[in-house]
Design goal:
alpha+beta; four-stranded parallel β-sheet; binds zinc ion; Rossmann fold; binds ligand ANZ; seven-stranded mixed β-sheet; 7 domains
């Protein structure tokens, strides 16, 4: 028997799939399509376990659906622009273009070695001109539709990466990439008008039934819809209007001070020339240097400073002090907050800190008022001290107060969103140039479509300085105005890499098409994506951006649908133990001995963490594939837990998977003669012997179980344990057949062949190389992917015998093996005939006998 030589068979089948273009997808009208998409990687140069879990899930779905008869599209490409690629290139002292392209080559080869099947004819890389030409084209469409525009704004600035960051790229006040504290800067920047899409992004959740609940929830929170009102206060001393946004118009009579964001343009104007000017402006600068992103400021210690001015409440004429406060955010609502300490905990704490009055206007149930309040009362109750609204339940008063405000021209009922416009310009080199020209005569002029792409020049000093590197490249900057021909200058910022990834799934459909960005016919056939697979970390960035992009393209008439992704699956993380020593920091596993650091002897702290280079707990997929084969890795990565859950890497489990594949291999090769003589003789139910019928039942149960598990949110782990059981039972049947009693089971060889063949087919999406090989050895032709997915025979599932428990007065006294589906009278008879039952009934009179068919006989006796 040949060894399980994965080193030979894996490249052999990979070559077969390539030579025969097994994964080539063509538009076939009338044939059911299935678009299976995995989030494309950025070409870091090496696959990690995160890729392995993501792309293995995708590949199993692809192969399963091919066998199910779908016309499957499975593309792959490269998210190759952006900071990570650029930083990696700087580190390697290479040009980003060269390092990106060489990384792509390496990773492409690694992907093939993992056995993932893609239609490589559709491969794309976002940093190639034939891709970004169309990204620029889309930008122009957005620009013309008013969806891309330039404005001056306070932006998050990472001093280390020397570029602006989207709000989404700031975490805990730090740059998501490098961890440097983020600063605020005032800059002219390009934005997409994503906030205009907030309502639709929420509304269309209706259409996203195939998305995980938690992703939708994260999006809802991120979009942050609030209903309330704009109320126009006025600065008492100057008459300047100062509107606020509030979700609690019912508390407007309880306003005891007003808070304004340090960035608010009114601040400087109001304090100018007043005695407090210097102090206020110093504080303002201090707060702004805090430099934290807006969302983080919410959690900071609340600080404020009295401006010396007041505002007048239009509803009751109260004049209350105006504070500059760090918790007031310039980019939310109007940048000013009416503060109601009695009913808002944040305002309450601020009022306590600065000795400001607290005025209850919604009666707490226990009747506490004002100064006696231990904390803000945020619940519902009746209005008090609220003018004409006294005595009204506050929920009802909200609407009434809004009406009152609107009638008097003091404001308006409004909806406010947390979702901001998308800041898309970057002061970095490695991105798609923004196709805009600045002319001294004509102003801002879009580059004509015929002049696209605006090529990213190669010879640029691209290390980050804060200024756009392209600005230092005169050949790039100097141009002529497309409108009037005057000397003009190009925009030197590049696009956020998330722009590139917001439409790549559409470009796969016509990746080689030089005549247009999108192909309507292909989109009509292939879209929406039937299954998208990727990490949960993209829930609020990529997965909102790509929806917004598609919405705009729909409005512009380019795509015939609004939602691009019908079903989304987010895989769990692969974790492993990581070890930390106070002295020597993170340690490799082999640097730990009996809980101590082998370098300094100190006790080591162990934790389970996502595999990461910094924690030295990564396992390299390449090494595993070399040592055990891709099939072992694929099987192992799916066998432990449902794939949406995080899993703990464990070397034992990996070996177990490898042993199983060896067992499967030898099950076929050890019995190949018998298996192939039995070909073409399927055991047909009734005429077969009992042992054959039992194995056959197991086979069909397993087919059903595997199919159901895959259909049930891809629970491959359950599918795998099902096949492992089937293989064990098959091996037992083989032993039986080889034993003396073989003559009692004449149909067994055929049943065994069916079992083995089914096991191979059911496993084929997961371990495709060994499956193709074994299937061939069993006489198959071509690729197993052209075979129909096995169907279970309902008749074979019929259980022949059941074990029934017999209870006497609630206690189980005997077990009976009876034919399944036996009638009630016959069951009773059999129970009473049983010797153990008779012994237990001795001297008692039967009161009642109940039968639960195929399960239980319950006897009551006295
Ligand atoms: C008065 C009030 C009374 C408020 C009360 C709440 C409770 P969400 O629900 O997140 O939309 N707010 C408005 N603009 C703000 C800004 N620029 N910076 C910081 N806070 C701001 O929050 C809406 C509430 O957040 C608004 O309702 C406002 O405080 C505050 F008992 O107005 B409220
Ligand atoms: Zn011009």
């Amino acid at each position: 028997m040949p060894d399980y030589n994965y080193r030979e068979i894996e490249p052999k089948w990979q070559k077969y799939w390539e030579d025969y273009k097994t994964f080539k997808a063509e538009l076939r009208p009338g044939k059911s399509k299935n678009y299976v998409l995995c989030m494309f990687p950025y070409p870091s140069g090496a696959l990690h376990m995160g890729h392995v879990i993501n792309y293995t899930i995708g590949d199993v779905i692809v192969r399963y659906r091919m066998m199910k008869g779908f016309n499957v599209l499975s593309p792959m490409g490269w998210d190759s622009f952006g900071l990570p690629a650029e930083n990696a290139a700087i580190k390697r002292a290479m040009h980003p273009e060269d390092s990106t392209n060489s990384n792509i080559e390496k990773m492409h080869a690694q992907m093939s070695k993992a056995g993932w099947g893609y239609d490589w004819a559709r491969e794309l890389a976002t940093s190639h001109p034939d891709y970004y030409k169309w990204t620029q084209w889309l930008f122009l469409k957005f620009y013309k539709a008013g969806q891309a525009f330039k404005k001056r704004a306070a932006v998050n600035w990472c001093p280390r990466d020397a570029t602006v960051l989207a709000n989404e790229q700031v975490q805990d006040g730090k740059c998501e990439r490098c961890g440097t504290p983020v600063e605020q800067r005032d800059l002219e920047q390009w934005f997409f008008k994503m906030s205009s899409d907030a309502e639709r992004l929420l509304r269309n959740h209706e259409q996203l039934k195939g998305w995980p609940e938690r992703v939708l929830k994260m999006q809802v929170e991120w979009i942050g819809r609030s209903e309330g009102a704009r109320i126009d206060f006025t600065v008492t001393e100057t008459g300047d209007p100062l509107p606020v946004f509030t979700t609690r118009p019912d508390t407007v009579y309880g306003v005891t001070f007003m808070s304004i964001a340090p960035e608010h343009p009114l601040v400087e104007k109001l304090v100018k020339g007043t005695p407090r000017e210097e102090e206020v402006m110093r504080q303002v600068r201090e707060m702004r240097r805090g430099g934290t992103s807006e969302r983080e400021r919410v959690d900071m210690e609340k600080v404020g400073l009295f401006t010396g001015l007041h505002v007048t409440n239009p509803l009751n004429g109260d004049e209350v002090p105006l504070y500059v406060a760090n918790f007031a955010l310039m980019t939310y609502g109007t940048g000013a907050v009416m503060s109601v300490p009695a009913h808002d905990q944040r305002d309450f704490e601020f009022a306590r800190k600065y000795g400001l009055p607290i005025k209850v206007v919604i009666q707490p149930p226990d009747g506490t008022l004002d100064g006696k309040l231990a904390q803000a009362f945020e619940g519902d109750g009746l209005q008090v001290r609220s003018g004409p609204f006294d005595g009204m339940p506050n929920r009802e008063a909200m609407g009434k107060i809004i009406q009152h405000i609107e009638k008097n021209g003091w404001g308006k009922g409004t909806v406010n969103y947390r979702l901001r416009d998308w800041l898309l310009s970057r002061q970095r080199y490695w991105g798609a140039p923004i196709p805009i020209v600045y002319c001294p005569v004509c102003g801002e002029v879009p580059v004509p479509e015929k002049d696209l792409p605006v090529l990213l020049p190669r010879n640029v000093e691209f290390k980050p300085t804060g200024e756009s590197p392209l600005a230092r490249c005169p050949d790039f900057v100097q141009t002529t105005c497309p409108k009037c021909g005057c000397p003009a200058k190009r925009e030197t910022d590049t696009m956020d890499t998330f722009v590139d990834s917001s439409w790549y799934f559409l470009r796969y459909l016509n990746a080689r098409d030089g005549d247009g960005a999108l192909d309507p016919e292909a989109m009509k056939y292939w879209m929406p994506v039937d299954q998208y697979i990727g990490g949960i970390e993209h829930a609020t960035m990529h997965l909102i951006y790509c929806r917004y992009f598609t919405h705009v393209l729909h409005d512009l008439g380019y795509v015939p649908f609004e939602e691009p992704i019908a079903n989304l699956f987010c895989q769990g993380m692969v974790c492993k133990e990581a070890f930390y020593c106070q002295e020597d920091k993170w340690l490799r596993q082999d640097e730990v001995n009996e809980g101590r650091c082998t370098k300094c002897g100190r006790p080591v702290h162990a934790e389970v963490a996502k595999m990461s280079k910094s924690k030295l707990n990564v396992v390299s997929p390449d090494e595993i594939i070399t040592k055990f084969g891709a099939d072992t890795l694929r099987l192992y990565i799916l066998s432990d837990t449902p794939p949406e859950r995080d899993q703990l890497w464990n070397d034992e489990g990996l070996l177990g998977s490898h042993r199983f594949l060896n067992r499967l291999w030898s099950t076929v090769f050890d019995n190949i003669g018998m298996l192939n003589t039995a070909a073409g003789k399927p055991p047909a139910g009734e005429q077969t012997d009992k042992a054959s019928r039992e194995l056959r039942r197991k086979t069909h149960e397993t087919i059903k179980r595997v199919t159901d598990s895959i259909e049930d949110n891809y629970h491959f782990n359950t599918a795998i344990s099902g096949v492992i059981e089937l293989v064990s039972q098959t091996r037992e049947a083989i032993s039986l057949m080889n034993s003396a009693s073989a003559s009692a089971a004449p149909s067994l060889p055929a049943a065994i062949r069916e079992a083995v063949q089914s096991a191979v087919m059911l496993l084929s999406p997961i371990v495709p190389h060994i499956a193709e090989e074994l299937w061939h050895v069993l006489g198959g032709k071509g690729t197993i992917l052209q075979q129909p997915w096995p169907a279970w025979d309902a008749a074979a599932l019929k259980v022949e015998e059941v074990e029934m428990a017999v209870q006497i007065n609630g206690k189980v006294r005997a077990h009976l093996t009876l034919p399944a589906g036996l009638g009630e009278e016959q069951v009773k008879e059999a129970a009473l005939a049983d010797e153990r039952v008779q012994r237990n009934l001795e001297g008692k009179a039967i009161v009642n006998i109940k039968v639960v068919p195929d399960r239980l006989v319950s006897i009551a006796a006295k």
